[in-house]
Specification:
- By secondary structure, this protein is α/β, with parallel strands linked by helices.
- It is 41% helix and 17% strand.
- It is built from 13 helices and 9 strands.
- It has a 7-stranded mixed β-sheet with strand order 4-3-2-5-6-9-7, with helices on both faces. The chain has a two-stranded antiparallel ribbon with strand order 1-8.
- The longest helix has 16 residues, at 239-254.
- The protein starts with a helix and ends in a 14-residue tail after the last helix.
Length: 312
Amino acid sequence: MNAAHAAMSAEAAASDTGRLLGAADIRRIAAEAGINPTKKYGQNFVIDPGTVRRIVREAGVRPQDHVLEVGPGLGSLTLALLEAGAEVHAVEIDPTLARRLPQTIGEFMPSARDRLTVLNQDALALQPQDMPALTADGGFTLVANLPYNVATPIVLTLLERFANLDRFLVMVQKEVAERLAAAPGSKVYGTPSVKLAWYGEAKRVGLVGRNVFWPAPNVDSALVAFTRTASSRQNQLTPRERERVFALIDAAFGQRRKTLHGALHRIVPDDAYRSAGIDPIRRGETLTIAEFICLERACSPGAAKDPGSVTQ
């Protein structure tokens, strides 16, 4: 085969499988649809094909996997997920972007149109009945470029509502990534770190430069990978117990500089510390999720105020 035929064959293959979006494609699509990135929705669109392929690779997406993408935007990551053979269920809060996405997939990867479902909705309001395909066949994966201001509530809310959300790979602000993956005793270990540990294990798996976004953000980004553990807490305890444990966590970190005894004196009796084997002069930032569970269980209903009623 000569060079001309080889080039024609490569072009034909590309037309069959589609291609990913580059910077010029992103700007053209945005202009055609009258889309201006807004701070309201935390919109920073990825313009680098290598970055979205890296995200898909780190997420371990395989053909026929069911993937939930939150905030697909103009479709950069969506196309990379479809390229990997996934069934993509996209949730987009911006109605203009939600309407445009199927058109973009039809233009750049027409053979994958049947593997895309788009729902115009706030991810924080998403319920299993809104996307029954995600709960019909085993587990699914969350892969997303999440808006910085709502990244933590989105992952925690989805993990709570979807028991078969087995793993996720999200791109978030670097500081958010550090908090999600932090270990006890770390300066950035806090409420998100402990609550995420209830469901499984998280780790930071890489940094992402600002130049891969349009518009470029004023902060650095990072990737966080998460796997729900087989013995995750929600399989052992009731939803009400989880609420009480999470309320203890909120109270302990609500007054971070105080000892546990000082921060929790209104809701945890002194004998509960002895029963749980936890020194009350420790601070919340030193406790593991298992220790918070032990402390909650040591609080007898008659001895402590219900943590669920605590407000910060």
